[in-house]
Design a protein that fits this description.
Blueprint lengths: L2 H5 L5 E3 L15 E3 L6 H14 L2 H4 L2 H24 L6 E4 L3 H20 L2 H4 L1 H22 L2 E4 L3 H9 L10 H16 L1 E4 L2 E4 L5 H14 L7 H7 L6 H16 L2 H22 L11 H9 L11 H24 L12 H6 L1 H13 L4 H4 L3 H21 L12 H9 L5 H14 L3 H12 L9 H10 L3 H6 L20 H4 L12 H11 L2 H18 L1
Parallel strand pairs: 1-3, 3-4
Antiparallel strand pairs: 1-2, 5-6
Helix pairs in contact: 2-4, 2-7, 4-7, 5-8, 5-12, 7-8, 7-9, 9-10, 12-14, 12-19, 13-15, 13-19, 15-17, 20-21, 21-22, 22-23, 26-27
Length: 551
């Protein structure tokens, strides 16, 4: 069978332009156009996918090249099978531009562009994101026409692909799993459906469902290293004022689609749980913030799809509360089982999607006793604006008390040192990876400190402390050299010392890139502000000397 036959297969194409906010499109608004071949659309997407596989940046990774070209070949085979199956059928295309899709895509692309400015791999992944889009369109068309005669063409795949790429990528050697993840999402959207409000619709958020399935598989198989997941969760904090950006980016969707109750209740629930944890333990639940940036992103652009969320406002408030509680609980559970904690925001959404009918019933039941009448008499745009105003006040208040934002005491290493010395719950476990990271980055002081933690067995999965002391000695830290000679198992205590001046550019990092001003006075001032008491003591004679010289 030649592809020329595919290209010239007769069809009828339908064009529908819609500015309606809802997904329903009235048939009477369609206009018939002739002489366009339906199967040319998935063929074009497949050829575009294959062309991306020929880019030099792709060809330098043989397995990535094989993943993309192999996927394109599978799509061509599926296209040939579809052509054979539909010889006697007339395929149609409904072109439907839905505001929900392109607004979400604009919001997500803004985050990707801003994040990529401060983490270059995002920009490097642009051809691979384009490959995923080409695959998503081709796969979605083939699946739709395999089951029926009509395919709805619009911006639908864009928010799905952008959302997936905000949270999880597979590395080049396993990139074929990225295509599999996308296929699972679109297949679930098309095949797993239920009746809601008198019409049949998909149950699961088409980006959250495959992310949750992939996360579960990666946890069970211990293959998180196949992905950039941990790096994604960490580097999303790199851009300055990232919490403010996400807040501003989320406003259009909140005003148009009424999802503010979900975001606001999720954020406030997580923050209040964090405050309660601090009050009980004296330590922070999440390392470095009350709400990690990746979870804050999920609260704005992951679980807030209006198509798979409750319709009632009380239902949406409960939906957000459940998400905040789930993220917090999963963070603790994943830590206890030794799994990467960044999966906390990805796992709960599909189960939450299954609960929306129940939440709506509860919301309507409460509304019948009069509680929802307070706001249901207002038109929807006015209610959305009121919720956004309330959320704006809450965001400003949280920022003012460092509940969210770039600066948080938990990002300063001395906080965790003092908490560990005070035996605050999980403080030593939280301190250890910070010191480990600084040791890998070249701080001999941090190497000696993590060695001391391991010597005293304050770290659960402790490696040998002697290796840390040896590394500290190599980096010129005298206490590390002395500690290397300590016989293990004896009662002797390792020697500790304050950070040296050359350690501060490493240990003062708070996730916003390297320290820019590395002059001694600037380093000591910043270290003193972060809680390094020795730096404060060293600043006093320096300031005295400066004063005397000025006289």
């Amino acid at each position: 069978m030649s592809f020329r036959g595919i290209l010239y297969m007769p069809l009828t194409t339908t064009l529908t332009a819609s500015a309606a906010r809802d997904a329903e499109i009235e048939p009477r608004r369609r206009r018939r156009l002739e002489s366009i071949s339906a199967l040319a659309l998935p063929l074009s997407c497949t050829l575009a996918l294959a062309a991306i596989g020929l880019l030099p940046s792709v060809r330098q990774h043989p397995r990535l090249f094989s993943s993309i070209v192999g996927t394109a070949f599978i799509l061509l085979v599926a296209l040939a099978l579809l052509r054979a199956r539909t010889k006697t059928r007339v395929l149609t295309v409904d072109v439907v531009v839905r505001r929900q899709h392109y607004v979400q895509a604009c919001m997500q692309s803004t985050v990707l562009l801003y994040w990529g400015w401060y983490w270059q791999p995002v920009y490097n992944a642009a051809p691979l994101i384009a490959a995923q889009l080409a695959f998503a369109y081709a796969f979605d068309m083939l699946l739709a026409w395999w089951r029926r005669d009509v395919y709805t063409l619009g911006f639908g795949p864009f928010p799905v692909i952008f959302s997936i790429n905000l949270f999880l990528w597979f590395k080049p050697d396993w990139f074929y799993l990225q295509f599999l993840m996308i296929a699972v999402g679109f297949a679930a959207k098309d095949l797993i459906r239920w009746k809601k409000e008198g019409r049949t619709t998909h149950i699961f958020n088409p980006s959250s469902f495959p992310l949750a399935i992939a996360s579960l598989g990666l946890i069970l198989t211990g293959t998180t290293s196949w992905t950039w997941g941990p790096e994604i969760a960490q580097t999303q904090f790199n851009p300055p004022n990232i919490y403010l950006l996400l807040f501003l980016v989320g406003l259009p969707g909140q005003l148009l689609f009424g999802v503010t109750p979900m975001t606001m209740s999720a954020v406030l629930t997580t923050y209040l749980l964090g405050l309660g944890y601090v009050a009980v333990t004296g330590s922070y639940f999440f390392v470095g913030s009350y709400i990690p940036i990746a979870a804050f992103l999920g609260m704005h652009l992951l679980f807030t799809d209006p198509s798979t969320a409750p319709r009632t406002e009380l239902g949406r408030i409960m939906f957000g509360i459940i998400y905040g509680v789930s993220v917090t609980a999963l963070y603790a559970i994943l830590g206890m089982v030794g799994a990467p904690r960044f999966y906390d925001k990805l796992l709960p959404v599909p189960l939450m999607n299954l609960s929306i009918k129940m939440l709506d019933r509860i919301g309507m039941a409460i509304g019948r006793v009069g509680l929802e009448r307070l706001w249901s008499s207002w038109p929807s745009p006015r209610r959305n604006l009121a919720y956004v105003a309330i959320w704006s006040v809450a965001f400003i208040a949280l920022s003012a008390v460092d509940g969210i934002g770039d600066d948080h005491p938990g990002r300063h290493l001395p906080f965790w040192q003092h908490a560990c010395e005070a035996n605050a719950r999980h403080a030593c476990e939280n301190l250890a990876p910070i010191l480990d990271a600084h040791c890998r980055d070249g701080s001999g002081w941090a190497c000696n400190e993590i060695g001391v933690l391991r010597w005293h067995r304050k770290v659960v999965r402790a490696e040998r402390a002697s290796a840390d002391f040896s590394r500290a000695c190599e980096l010129g830290v005298a206490p590390g050299c002395l500690n290397m000679r300590l016989p293990e198992g004896r009662s002797a205590n390792p020697i500790q010392a304050p950070p040296r001046l050359q350690d501060y550019p490493v240990v003062l990092r708070t996730g916003k890139g390297p320290v820019r001003d590395t002059t001694p006075s600037a380093l000591l001032t910043r270290a003193c502000d972060h809680g390094f008491s020795q730096a404060c003591r060293e600043l006093i004679p320096a300031a005295t000397t400066t004063t005397l010289r000025s006289r």
